[in-house]
Amino acid sequence: MDNFIFDLDGTLLNTINDLAASTNYALRSAGMPEHSVDDVRRFVGNGVKKLMERAIPDGLNNPDFDETYATFRKHYLEHSLDTTKPYDGIPEVLAELKRRGKKLAIVSNKFYAATQELARHFFPDTIEVAIGERENIRKKPAPDTVLEAMRQLGVGKEGTVYIGDSDVDIDTAHNVGVPCISVLWGFRDRDFLLAHGATTLIERPEQLLDFA
Question: Out of 2, 7, 18, 39, which one is annotated catalytic?
């Protein structure tokens, strides 16, 4: 493989504690019940709006949804680096892929500004393109954001692989028409991933080098 396109949360970065902190800050500010980190882990994977839809009682039907969601976004943009860090081995693997001449990108359902900030902060020398959720483009599992990343990288489907930790990532790769590598250090376990169509699973980041 020559082109590696990565999911962000649960794949490159362990973001769960910061996501849970901002979720609970927003809920607490609105007088709503809070959730455990494990609850939030189950809520993530389809973008932060869907995360808050799952976390807020009655979801989109809650009259305070928009205000609470806005509180989350503001808090998370200010606190997305509090405890977030790459999974062990990720920076070294990305550096080796880059050394081998591979093209690297991030495609996330996290909102665009946060995706860009996290990519610049943690992977300034390895990730060439970082795309997050935007209003004018369909988010994963639609193929649009991955296809946009491929366009920016100047590559096609041949030699491209998508790497993620969730069923959304499996569906995204299928919709793009590229293979998917599912990682087992993220927010979903082996049984879940296999039940949702995973065909290639890895347990450690350095196993990605076997595909390069």
Answer: 7
8-state DSSP, 134 = B
Distance CA 69, CA 67 (A): 5
Q: What is the model's pLDDT at position 136?
A: 84
Could you tell me the domains of the chain?
Answer: 3-14+85-211 (3.40.50.1000), 16-79 (1.10.150)
pLDDT tens string 50-94: 999 999 999 999 999 999 999 999 999 899 999 999 999 999 999
7 an active-site residue? yes
The reported pTM is 0.92
The Cα 97–Cα 108 span in angstroms is 20
